[in-house]
Amino acid sequence: MIPVLDNFRLDGRVAIVTGASSGLGVQFAQALAQAGADVVLAARREDRLVQTRTLVEAEGQRGLAVRADVTNPEDCTALASAAMSAFGRVDVLVNNAGIGTAVPALKETPEQFRSVVDLNLNASYWMAQACGRVMQPGSSIINISSVLALTSMGLPQAAYTASKAAVIGLTRDLAQQWTGRKGIRVNAIAPGVVRTRLAELLWHDHEQELSDTLPLGRIGEPEDIGQAIVFLASDAASWITGDTLRVDGGSKL
């Protein structure tokens, strides 16, 4: 019998993290490296990727920075190919690249709506396709949704909530298609309000108010989500697929 803590290790595995130049993507890359994975880092800002690669290498793991626009299917294929060329395998994909907006529905332009859906939903699909073609049985895809896909915070976020809800539907379908046939698990994480620069406008002036709505009494930290990423990527979650894990402090807003 394998010791239980060993099932959470990712030694010898290779993970791709999109949106790895800032915010939660940096934390995800570092957490995966701490668990033993080599990490391929993707984003449009290559200079910031180098900083994340330094964090991965500081954990004793190999890092590869690849500039990619994941809304472009060709860039997604090239990213998976770069990972295969450098490391010979892809075991984990974290579809983290995304954008949030808060535009009233009567003022949101078609271009604004489409740009959010293109990055939050379409890019997740293109990346899953590219990695699904090269992944071996036992691999794991983790899509980043949001608690706003499941509830509301009273903000005008139609494009964001619609795209993140669609990510959950995409997760279920890909799990149904690939887990039994290809041995690839596909799950999603729905974070609540987390202390990142992207979410600062939400919580900066209302942190105590938001904290008081949560049973656990605090805003989330990036590490809270990073630990969930490691769990779903690892063999400790080997009997979990097609699911969405809420990591939100118990939010019932």
Write a structural description.
This protein has 253 residues and is an alpha/beta fold. It has a single domain (9-190, 224-247), classed as Rossmann fold, CATH 3.40.50. The protein is built from eight helices and seven strands; from the N terminus they run E-H-E-H-E-H-E-H-E-H-E-H-H-H-E. It has helices spanning 23-34, 46-58, 73-87, 110-132, 158-182, 200-203, 207-212, 222-233; strands spanning 14-18, 38-43, 63-67, 92-95, 140-144, 185-191, 244-247. The chain has a seven-stranded parallel sheet, sandwiched between helices. Strand 1, helix 1 and strand 2 form a beta-alpha-beta unit. The longest helix has 25 residues, at 158-182. It starts with 13 loop residues before the first strand and ends in a 6-residue tail after the last strand. The mean pLDDT is 91.
The count of helical stretches stands at: 8
CATH C-level name: Alpha Beta
CATH architecture: 3-Layer(aba) Sandwich
Cα-to-Cα separation, first versus last residue:
42 Å
Write down the domain tally. 1
| CATH homologous superfamily annotation | NAD(P)-binding Rossmann-like Domain
Shape: globular
What oligomeric state best describes the polypeptide chains here? single chain
Low-confidence stretches: none
Strand content: 5-15%
List its traits.
alpha/beta; Rossmann fold; 7-stranded parallel beta sheet; 7 strands; 43% helix
